[in-house]
């Protein structure tokens, strides 16, 4: 989780590069949060997120 928070804090800094660990942990946590948001959306019945238009094949 510290890598995700580090990426969010450094979002506006355009110097240096993220390490592989930072990148992959950020991607992992972002995907987990996204799945949780979709699940909550479906359970509550809002259906704001259309699963057919996701950028995944």
Range of strand content: under 5%
Separation of the first and last Cα atoms: 27 Å
Order of helices and strands: HH
Sheet with most strands:
none
Enumerate how many helices there are, as a single number: 2
The overall strand count is 0
- Mean pLDDT comes to 80
Outline the low-pLDDT stretches.
none
Helix content: 55-70%
Provide the structure class. mainly alpha
Summarize the topology:
Elements: H1 2-9, H2 20-44
Helix pairs in contact: 1-2
Describe the protein's architecture and organization.
- The protein has 57 residues and is mainly α.
- The protein has one domain.
- It is 58% helix and 0% strand.
- The protein has two helices and no strands.
- Helix 1 (2-9) crosses helix 2.
- The two termini are 27 Å apart.
- The mean pLDDT is 80.
Short précis:
The protein is an all-alpha fold and 57 residues long. Helix content is 58%, strand content 0%.
Main features:
0% strand; 58% helix; mainly alpha
